[in-house]
Amino acid sequence: MAIEITKSFTIDAPREEVWKFLTDPERVARCLPGAAITEKVDDRDYLGTITVKVGPVSASYKGKIRFETLDEASGTAEIVATGQDVKGKGGAEMRLKSRVAELSPGHTEVTSTSTVNITGILAQLARGMILLLSDQMFQKFTEAMAKELGKEGR
Length: 154
Fold this sequence. Notes:
Layout: E1 2-11, H1 15-22, H2 25-30, E2 35-40, E3 45-54, E4 57-71, E5 76-85, E6 90-104, E7 107-120, H3 127-148
Antiparallel strand pairs: 1-7, 2-3, 3-4, 4-5, 5-6, 6-7
């Protein structure tokens, strides 16, 4: 089941600081509940894990993350992530395109579009449940990112 998800948010932080944060998988993983980077293979490739829970169903994935495109000048990045359920009952693939844009000094907008393809136990859930999970993870991520960047009080 392939799902496209588009999200955007603004943060009170300089564009350069937001770019550095979003292109550091270890910092990003700290802000995603259940995610961890387990190994840096090289400057563009990483290994990691993530566990997600949708209602009564949870799944743990082990996989790879690769920066396909990193263009700091335009503020665009493209990431491809693939993972397999650790119990061998499915997998997930994601292609994420994001853009970081300065709205005004110290105020940055982040826009991302991801295409997620899920197989196995999570694919059996209704699309609405997957989108709800996405919304919850997005909310937690943006809150944690603001704390990580020290900007939650602005």
